[in-house]
Amino acid sequence: MSTQTNAIWIDVRTHDEFNAGHIEGAAHIPYEEIALRIGEVTTDKNANIHLYCRSGNRSGIAQQTLQAMGFINAVNEGGYEALLYQQANR
Question: 40: domain range?
Fold first, then answer.
């Protein structure tokens, strides 16, 4: 799966999970570091940010954190495997 040019994809899983496979072009910021490190990826509060993890739980936490910080277009895309499945079945 490749990323859209105007979208930011962030993998919020652990380092080991990210290294085992991730969406092409995705940034890696573990969910517990998202508030401190989002500025490494964007400072645009209107940016389209797509978050994912293994099941959707950690990306949901990251989404809530970013929305509380004013990133209004942060979206929880759910789990990595489900995203791969969706891409393969398009």
Answer: 1-6+17-47
